[in-house]
Amino acid sequence: MQFDAPKRRGGNSSLLPMINVVFLLLIFFLISAKLSPPEPFPTEPPHSEAAAEAEGEFSVFLGAEGQLGFRDMIVAQGEDVDPLVGALVQAREEYCATTDCETDPAHLLLRGDQHVKATYLAGLLPKLGQAGFAKVELVTTRGGAE
């Protein structure tokens, strides 16, 4: 008794390695991507000659009109900043619940606009310090005024 050899399905077998590579790349980018929330309003950071890059776990935005933004909360200049500070405290506590903040404390990035007066910024720092952040870094762009 003789059996015929099964018919091979042709055509799609050459695509399988390419599909595998595409899925591996997709998984790589999904794992390596870091999602960040959108800025609540546009800011134009001040210029500096510092080469160090600011790093932090949380970002607070300070707009040209003096408005403060954290995640989806925006507080206009002159309004009470306590709800925003409370949101920062809660976010920091949630972060510290999963991370050892005793050895590596959480840092706060302040993304301020270059048109904000320094006196307003200086008055704002103690209020941000109430949130429990030991270090607040001001985000700047490299390059001085010409």
TrEMBL record:
It is a single-pass membrane protein; Single-pass type II membrane protein. It comes from the Bacteria. Keywords: Cell membrane, Membrane, Protein transport, Transmembrane, Transmembrane helix, Transport. InterPro entries: ExbD. The keyword Ligase does not apply. The chain crosses the membrane at residues 12-31. It is found in: Cell membrane. The keyword Transmembrane helix applies. Its main location: membrane. Belongs to the ExbD/TolR family. This is Biopolymer transporter ExbD.
